Amino acid sequence: MGRWEFATRTSASAAVAVVPVTSDRELILVEQFRIPVGKPVIEFPAGLVGDDGQAEDLAAAARRELEEETGYRAGAMTLAESGPSSAGLADEVVSIFLARDLTAVSTGGGVDGEEIVVHVVPLAEIDAWLAAQQRRGCLVDNRVFAGLYLLARAERNETTG
Question: What are 19-42's pLDDT values in tens digits?
């Protein structure tokens, strides 16, 4: 089989990402400079589960990350899917949640110097907005595209089912 390298986190048990949608059909996204890629990255709020050494369930971590990064609280948090973040490199599994019934409770921006910029984007304009961010030099995290698919799937299921 040859030589195989992979990464494993020792400080957290899993990861979460959150697709927040306001009642006005706006998406809440975040932007932060990511040192490994050397560029700003557009993402959905995300983070590690139990990274403070405390036991934490997935939904609680999703709620915490949403509020820390964006300043919003979700009235409804629904698990959409879970899967590997990079199966050829790491053993990390990311659970993606859909967050609805949002209430702004702070300005967000992250913790511990994360310097997160919050973007509120109408869902109907997301494709053009993401393209504009790429033109200005941002990368778009693949979980954004996955999250958009999961949101569309959930909405199809709600109308048909």
Answer: 999 999 999 999 999 999 999 999
CATH 3.90.79.10 fits 14-160, yes or no: yes
Residue among 67, 68, 129 nearest 102 (CA): 67
Exposed e or buried b per residue across 118-146, where buried means at least 16 C-beta atoms within 10 angstroms of its C-beta: beebebeebeebbeebeeeebeebebbeb
For the stretch 33-82, pLDDT in tens is: 999 999 999 999 999 998 766 778 999 999 999 999 999 999 999 999 99
**What span, in angstroms and rounded, lies between the C-alpha atoms of 34 and 101?**
29
Strand partners, 18: 97
